Protein: Coenzyme A biosynthesis bifunctional protein CoaBC
Amino acid sequence: FQPKVLQGRKLLITAGPTFEPIDPVRGITNHSSGKMGFAMARAAAEAGAEVTLVAGPVHLPTPRGVRRVNVTTAQQMFDAVLPQAAAHDVFVATAAVADWRPASLSAQKIKKEGDKKATPTFELTENPDILAAVAGLPQPPFCVGFAAESENLLEHARSKLVRKKLPMIVGNLGPATFGKDDNALLVIDAQRHYPLPADGSSADKLTLARQLMADLAQRL
Ligand code: C5P
Structure:
């Protein structure tokens, strides 16, 4: 039984990877499974919230009671999120958004046996930072960021908190959380940081998501 601690709240959540096409058959993506974001959406709905989940390309069932919007690229995710962000109480950015995309999209498949026979090179251009844009709105929702770092988690996450003007960021303590069912988290705000589960062990993503929703409800 989950207490309805988010009854009457509207949550907007991003999840999964983005896919940035290079040509009609190739693209740049990452190993995000979407599991944490989908667990967050499920836990939020269980806690009584009205939930919109903007999902990158993943094969996961939509949690019960959740409104889902499917997108592919970071720009599409940005376009789906920004217009409705201010109408929400909370924005949770779990998506692993590609930081860069190919500067141009080839209309045809790039062929190996081309005239020049040269290895292709790709110019990249920066994607918009969805979380920073939402946090920078005149009246932003309560914004929760996620951080997956391969080193110096606390330091990197704290600088992200400041740079993106976030009240709260959640760091992945596990070295390789992508695709796994279990995780260990570090919750960081302006004053403190503490592990979830509280005893520093690990837990499945749904358990962690429920704990995060209880934590979040106290901050609103
Ligand atoms: O800067 P970095 O990508 O490490 O920050 C991670 C956090 O920012 C995550 O919450 C992620 O969902 C969000 N993010 C975003 N848009 C981007 C890049 C990251 O919303 N373009």
Observations:
- The CA atoms of residues 17 and 30 lie 6 Å apart.
- The mean pLDDT is 93.
- The helical segments are 35-46, 74-85, 130-135, 153-163, 205-219.
- Residues 14, 74, 93, 95, 97, 127, 129-131, 145-147, 160 surround cytidine-5'-monophosphate (CB under 6 Å).
